Recover the amino acids of this structure.
């Protein structure tokens, strides 16, 4: 008999609406173990679909397939996973990405809930962020080996999301060998990446297309805030006469310096708290023609929204004061809990307090290799506005 979970009428409405998550509050009856692929039934006993079940997370079900399958037999999870990974890879190959580091599988948006796969040249990094997907790791790994023949596959299973699933946080080599540092190329630039300890799976791969777009407007003096490994500083710095980059991490700034030396781009990389540095630059009367604000997520949960709004407003206010008339501000938020409308309102409030007029040149989002699934706002997290200071 198939493992089964019965959900409430509210859960059924949510599932029929196309959202792939069912929360624990809408689970009525469970006849399954954590990590099982389960048959999801409605309150009247009808099969609604198939899902990964978690007995620990508030997200109890992550839907793999909507609707009943033939003879009500459980879908062959291995075949489904293999086919969807193959489709995700084929889509990325169709994008003609100007890099050998990019996202291959973007979780729910590739109909592979809680699975992330990133490519770094000849190496792959995998994250399985739910009990069910963690149990399917052997299928994921064998599929990636069959389709891509990587030199090595690393599991970066250290995100906090795994704790909520009752899973261990760990970093393991799943196949082949993975060196301490991997060299990749992006937009004609070369980077050294630490896949074991770097942010996310090594680099922030979702800003590549925004850097290309922003470079079209970059000129004069450039200030890159929250620089991390220097992605914006390097791409935009090739078009600017002077570039200053700030990050609070000494390790990140050391990496910026290494990357700039490798690529022959002049960047004055400095360790510093961006909030303090922006105020200090304003006091000194400094001015810039191009400013990039690409902070980490200020709102990692709903409780942090108020402080996040204040933080975003502060850095945008300071940046607008430092920006020359006619200059370009590239401002970003990767906080899912601050949506596009809210972020636009924050930036507008900052412009009012700065007593300047600002026009929107471009509104952008995460790169195409990080697709957004319509109806699932959780997959739309990165907002990037390219703005012009009119006066």
């Amino acid at each position: 008999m198939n493992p089964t979970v019965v959900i409430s009428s509210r859960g059924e409405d949510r599932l029929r609406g196309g959202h792939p998550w069912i929360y624990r509050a809408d689970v009525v009856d469970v006849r399954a173990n954590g990590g099982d692929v389960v048959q999801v039934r409605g309150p009247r006993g009808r099969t609604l679909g198939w899902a990964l079940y978690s007995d620990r997370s508030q997200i109890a079900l992550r839907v793999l397939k909507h609707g009943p399958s033939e003879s009500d037999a459980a879908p062959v999870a291995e075949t489904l996973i293999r086919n969807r990974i193959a489709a995700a890879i084929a889509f990325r190959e169709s994008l003609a990405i100007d890099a050998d580091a990019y996202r291959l599988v973007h979780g729910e948006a590739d109909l592979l809930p809680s699975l992330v796969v990133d490519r770094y040249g000849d190496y792959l990094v995998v994250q399985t962020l739910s009990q069910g997907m963690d149990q399917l790791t052997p299928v994921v790994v064998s599929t990636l080996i069959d389709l891509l023949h990587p030199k090595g596959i690393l599991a970066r299973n250290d995100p906090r999301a795994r704790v909520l699933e009752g899973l261990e946080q760990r970093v393991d080599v799943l196949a082949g060998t993975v060196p301490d540092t991997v060299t990749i190329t992006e937009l004609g630039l070369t980077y050294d990446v630490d896949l074991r300890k770097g942010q996310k799976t090594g680099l922030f791969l979702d800003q590549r297309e925004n850097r290309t777009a922003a470079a079209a407007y970059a000129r004069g003096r450039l200030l890159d805030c929250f620089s991390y490994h220097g992605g914006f500083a390097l791409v935009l710095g090739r078009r600017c006469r002077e570039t200053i980059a700030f990050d609070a991490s000494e390790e990140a700034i050391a990496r910026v310096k290494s990357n700039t030396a490798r690529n022959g781009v002049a960047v004055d990389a400095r360790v510093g708290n961006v909030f303090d540095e922006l105020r200090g630059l304003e006091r000194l009367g400094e001015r810039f023609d191009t400013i990039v604000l690409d902070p980490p997520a200020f709102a990692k949960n709903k409780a942090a929204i108020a402080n996040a709004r204040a933080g975003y407003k502060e850095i945008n206010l300071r940046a607008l004061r430092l920006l020359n008339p006619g200059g370009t501000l590239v401002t970003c938020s990767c906080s899912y809990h601050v949506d596009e409308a809210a972020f636009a309102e924050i930036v507008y409030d900052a412009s009012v307090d700065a007593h300047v007029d600002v026009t929107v040149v471009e509104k952008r989002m995460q790169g195409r290799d990080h697709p957004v699934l319509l109806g699932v706002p959780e997959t739309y997290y990165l907002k990037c506005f390219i703005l012009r200071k009119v006066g």
In short: The chain has a mean pLDDT of 95.
